[in-house]
Amino acid sequence: MPKNETVARLGLDEYKYDFRTEDKPVFKAQKGLNEQVVRQISAHKEEPEWMLEFRLRALEIYYSKPMPTWGGDLSTLNLDEIYFYLRPQDRMERSWDDVPDDIKNTFERLGIPEAERSILAGVGAQFESEMVYHSLKEEWTAQGIIFESIEDGLKLYPEIFREYFATIVPPGDNKFAALNSAVWSGGSFVYIPKGVKVDIPLQAYFRVNAEQMGQFERTLIICDEGAQAHYIEGCTAPVYTTESFHSGVIEIVVKPNARFRYTTIQNWSSNMYNLVTQRAMVHENANMEWLDGNLGSKLTMKYPSCFLVGEGAHGEILSIAYAGDGQHQDTGGKVVHAAPNTTSMIVSKSISKGTGRSSYRGLCKVYEGAVGSKSNVECDALLMNETSRTDTYPYIEIDENQSSIGHEASVSKVGEEQLFYLMSRGLSEAEAMTMVVRGFIEPIAKELPLEYAIELNRLIELEMEGSVG
Amino acid sequence: MSEYLLEVRNLHARVEDGEESILNGVDLVVRAGELHALMGPNGSGKSTLAKVIAGHPSYEVTAGDVLLNGENILEMEPDERSRAGVFLAFQYPAEIPGVSISNFLRTAVNARRSEEEGDVGVLDFQRQLTEKLKLLRVDPSFAGRHVNDGFSGGEKKRNEILQMAMIEPLMAVLDETDSGLDIDALRIVSDGVNTLRRERPEMGVLMITHYKRILGYLEPDHVHVMLGGKIVQSGGPELADQLEEMGYDWLSEPEPQPVA
């Protein structure tokens, strides 16, 4: 059949893109957001009625909420100029030639394989590692583990999907959660069955295709009782898209006695506004860890959260933020103690270089009755230049006397004495700066999977080279 | 090729953008393999001399030369001087949190290897490091600790000597390496320096010290006394005894002595 031949020649995944145009309204990519766009998204994905209604209700909520004025500067974000939905075919019309040189250079310096560069630059559709994914998938399916795209999650597992979807981050939570709820597309659906321990990390990277690089990804993860897994999303290599706005929502349920870790490393290009809502509901004696690395984007506003709703629950947020020239990282975390004997820890390490600005914004809330709660927050900032800036906005709301809360903050510069000490051992100024910065983030970097830690180290080296005249 | 390993000629220096001159015409020569002790009261400029030789950015040289094997090093950045063979054991070593000593040493070793040589192999480095740890009788676990982070005074000085062992400098300047140490620590540090001198007899050492005590453990070939930013007296080890007996006052009207 001619159509399938064309599809095969383009190397496209037949299932995903083989839609029947006869049944649907003709799709036209358009800028700006309105009800029609939302309807098109839902129709294109062939969603059940309830999801369309959900999206439309979320759109109303989105319109009703004002733009936040705390946090970063969103005044230059022009939402009328953004495409809120693009099919993968639309993306592929762009070419490698349009990709900025500095992005291409970084790929080169980091040794990114050729095959991956086009995907990261948003001009490719598919990945060789799709093969890796498929073979791992067989193993996982045998154990009952579900790891699908969010769209397939809805299609193939409607009951469990509906049970949890939007229960952790409801559309009314904030303006951008509402936006995401209206226009979400791409993301992962993960279910780990009771008692199953997954040894190797589940990586969003395996499944990356043009759609996954989308701006409004939605991820839903359910880690059932006693299960254990680690999910990794993002990569240290720069990701370039002409779309300059990314607003994701990640919802995680960690059931009693389960352990889950979610690792993100983002290095969005410097035109990107990155606003993400990440939240985990942590039940009795369960353990949740967020590892959050923010290296790129023009502005990131992201506060991974742990809602400790079961007795004995534990939540941790380890966050690294790097703000170079013109960047603003407004990051941190939230912990909410809503049950007795819950514990939490936030460690935030931020680096500001040049005119970069990194802010720690965090919440520690302890409800009345959350007796025996313990929380500790440590936020450390490193300023590389006279012009760099760091701020700390800790919010602490404690309604329970029988709790123990600690907060420590430090700001340091790369000291002249440190630099001289290292240089007097033969290290160049750039090598010395790199060493100090690596040492600064070491407590968090050592938690990253090895290949990420290596790439992170190399990235820092590149940044430091650039910083020295 | 000069007969001197280190030659300091009429060196004048002050704090950058400062007014007062701290070094006022220092003259000093060290031959390969020699151990020189530099003594003097507080404020005489001893530590400043050490820092200026190493290239500390806070100081500016207003006159004079510093030559290493006949080559003027004053135009070189601190890292270039290090690669040329100068080593400064700090009086107050900086802390580098999050960086292990092993990692730090490997970077320092690699910094002086040429493009052709490439980085030192992982196994080779481990072997070298283990050897030096044994030589200096330092517990192997030391290498896993973070550079000077939470170290006692003695541990910091020990770390300096370990670096000296791995880097193998031509000319080592020890800035009050003995200050703040108890007898045991002093012995450990001295043993370390003596061991390294035995291993590499061509290394020159300029030891800056406030007290005579260390000279009992590290016997100098020459002793110099610094006062008011200049070397005012030089002699053999017996000069140190004289100073101990008579203090520094008898030197306050100095007559430059020829270098022994």
Task: Kindly summarize this structure in a few lines.
The complex is a heterodimer of chains A (469) and B (260). Chain A is of the alpha/beta class and 469 residues long.
Largest sheet of chain A: 10 strands, mixed
The run of helices and strands of chain B is EEEHEEHEHHHEHEEEH
Low-pLDDT regions of chain A: 1-25, 125-129
What are the segments of chain B in which pLDDT stays under 50 over at least 5 consecutive residues?
none
* N-to-C CA distance of chain A: 60 Å
Radius of gyration of chain A: 22 Å
Query: What is the percentage of strand-forming residues of chain A?
Result: 25-35%
> What is the percent of helical residues of chain B?
25-40%
Largest sheet of chain B: 6 strands, mixed
Number of helices of chain A: 14
End-to-end Cα distance of chain B: 21 Å
The helix content of chain A is 25-40%
What is the number of independent domains of chain B?
1
Widest β-sheet, arrangement of strands of chain B: 6-7-8-3-9-10
Strand segment tally of chain A? 18
> What is the arithmetic mean of pLDDT of chain A?
84
Overall pLDDT level of chain B: 90
Give me the secondary-structure category of chain B: alpha/beta
Quaternary structure state of the chains depicted: heterodimer
Principal-axes geometry of chain B comes out as globular
User: How many individual β-strands of chain B?
Assistant: 10
What does it look like?
The complex is a heterodimer of chains A (469) and B (260). By secondary structure, chain A is of the alpha/beta class. Among the domains of chain A are: 103-302, no CATH class; 416-469, no CATH class. Helices cover 30% and strands 30% of the residues of chain A. Chain A is built from 14 helices and 18 strands. Chain A has helices at residues 2-9, 14-17, 35-44, 49-64, 88-92, 101-110, 114-120, 130-143, 150-156, 158-164, 175-183, 416-423, 429-445, 450-467, and strands at 146-149, 188-192, 202-203, 218-223, 228-234, 245-254, 259-266, 273-282, 287-294, 299-302, 305-308, 314-323, 328-337, 343-352, 357-366, 373-383, 389-398, 403-413. In chain A, strands 1, 2, 4, 6, 8, 10, 11, 13, 15 and 17 form a ten-stranded mixed beta sheet that branches. In chain A, strands 3-5-7-9-12-14-16-18 form an eight-stranded parallel beta sheet, covered by helices on one side. In chain A, helix 4 (49-64) packs antiparallel against helix 11 (175-183) and helix 9 packs across helix 10. Chain A is globular, with a radius of gyration of 22 Å. Chain A starts with a helix and ends with a helix. Residues 1-25 and 125-129 of chain A have low confidence and may be disordered. Chain B is α/β, with parallel strands linked by helices. Chain B has one domain: Rossmann fold (3-Layer(aba) Sandwich). In chain B, 32% of the residues lie in helices and 24% in strands. Chain B has seven helices and ten strands. Chain B has helices spanning 46-54, 78-84, 101-111, 122-135, 153-167, 183-199, 238-246; strands at residues 6-15, 21-30, 35-39, 59-68, 71-72, 86-89, 171-175, 204-208, 222-227, 230-235. In chain B, the strands form two sheets. Chain B has a six-stranded mixed beta sheet, sandwiched between helices. In chain B, strands 2-1-4-5 form a four-stranded antiparallel beta sheet. In chain B, strand 1 and strand 2 (21-30) form a beta hairpin. The two termini of chain B are 21 Å apart. The mean pLDDT of chain B is 90. The A-B interface holds A 415-418, 420-429, 431-432, 435-436, 438-443 and B 54-58, 77-79, 81-83, 87-88, 90, 92-99, 104, 107-108, 111-112, 146-147, 163, 167.
